[in-house]
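Tokens in:
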């Protein structure tokens, strides 16, 4: 497919570089659910506030803080307010070089500056040697990859080939759209970079890399909080943190940002990631709250199904939900035969999407799939055929996105 526009990817699970991901939660060993945060209602936890405050103190340095307190002291009201309130937008930006007040020392007649110069800029997701050097350092120290595993082509494909960039005016604010690199520079040196997809209604975090020199400063928290602030300031409303994998302990930090919601893999509705939801995720490998509500399932493990008092239809639905039976006895192979949640059935594809009218780009020509010589003879039920593979793609995208995308076969 051609690179999609930001507006077109709003309903997709996870665009990353030249790839679009749609997870199969039911059939996965480690189900990954799309998670999002209502950034406008987010209240940072104590450890989040501590991470920001520690970083700000590091940037300012003791010398600057003591001199600034003496040369331009805060009023009693200001001190009281800061002691009892924490404003994320203020705290996250106050130590950027452009925002630091630099008083004149009456003794030396020189400007009093911070210990470090800290800058953050939202830049194009284009390639540079500086960015690649940071990526290579991160992959070596965090993921323990060897030289042969770290390549410029892989970096470009993964983190420099995202959505096209544009902007629009929304509620009086210029809102950037597309893929960007949020670059963090310390004394002019690139020390961290967040890869972001800015969509009409969300900031989506794709990846974060940082230099091993700053590994002790909790850049995961610092970058997440800054991206949450960006979602509020830019009018995006939501902050997407990629996937939430409950069975992976390292992923559970994502539920510490509240209020968060998980996308139901069967109905595509959003449900609060609260204590009840977390209990269900701990009790079962795969959870769809829409199904669990329908069957009135308790949040704990199902040790005695008879106590649920289900009718025959509900009992069969429960067995299907628990992957004990193939509900349709289908012999269909590939994704369409896997009963993947959220995927259109082959019958729905044939009924709702005219695959033959899907636009195909061949060289400099645009044509319809039905213009291909053997299109009519290919078997849509065979996933190894071109028509079968395209039907699977259409089932994942849905009719709305199929109408906006152009196929480009390679």
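Residues out:
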């Amino acid at each position: 497919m051609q690179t999609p526009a930001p507006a077109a990817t709003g309903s997709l699970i996870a665009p990353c570089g030249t790839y679009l991901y749609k997870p199969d939660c039911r059939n996965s060993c480690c189900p990954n659910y799309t998670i999002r945060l209502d950034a406008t209602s987010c209240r940072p936890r104590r450890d989040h506030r501590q991470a920001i405050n520690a970083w700000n103190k590091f940037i300012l340095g003791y010398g600057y803080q003591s001199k600034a307190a003496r040369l331009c002291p805060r009023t009693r009201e200001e001190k009281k307010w800061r002691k009892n309130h924490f404003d994320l937008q203020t705290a996250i930006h106050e130590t950027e070089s452009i925002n630091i007040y630099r008083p004149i020392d009456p003794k030396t007649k020189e400007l009093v500056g911070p210990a470090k110069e800290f800058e953050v800029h939202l830049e194009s997701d284009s390639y540079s040697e500086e960015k690649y050097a940071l990526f290579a350092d991160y992959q070596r120290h965090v993921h323990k990859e060897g030289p042969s595993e770290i390549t410029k082509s892989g970096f470009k494909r993964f983190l420099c080939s995202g959505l096209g960039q544009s902007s629009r005016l929304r509620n009086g604010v210029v809102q950037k759209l597309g893929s960007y690199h949020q670059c963090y520079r310390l004394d002019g040196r690139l020390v961290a970079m967040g890869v972001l997809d800015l969509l009409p209604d969300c900031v989506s975090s794709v990846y974060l890399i940082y230099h091993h020199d700053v590994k002790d400063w909790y850049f995961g928290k610092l970058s997440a909080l800054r991206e949450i602030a960006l979602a509020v300031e830019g009018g995006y409303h939501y902050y997407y943190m990629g996937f939430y994998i409950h069975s992976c302990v390292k992923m559970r930090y994502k539920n510490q940002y509240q209020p968060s919601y998980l996308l139901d893999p069967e109905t595509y509705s959003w449900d609060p990631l609260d204590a009840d939801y977390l209990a269900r995720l701990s009790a079962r490998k795969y959870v769809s709250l829409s199904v669990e509500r329908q069957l009135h399932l308790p949040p704990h493990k199902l040790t005695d199904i008879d106590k649920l008092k289900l009718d025959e239809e509900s009992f069969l639905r429960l067995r299907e939900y628990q992957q004990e039976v193939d509900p349709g006895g289908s012999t269909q192979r590939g994704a369409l035969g896997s009963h993947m949640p959220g995927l259109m059935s082959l019958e729905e594809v044939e009924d709702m999407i005219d695959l033959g009218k899907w636009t195909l780009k061949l060289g400099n020509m645009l044509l319809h799939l039905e213009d291909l010589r053997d299109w009519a003879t290919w078997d849509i039920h065979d996933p190894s055929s071109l028509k079968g593979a395209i039907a699977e793609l259409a089932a994942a995208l849905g009719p709305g996105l199929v109408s906006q995308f152009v196929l480009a076969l390679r």
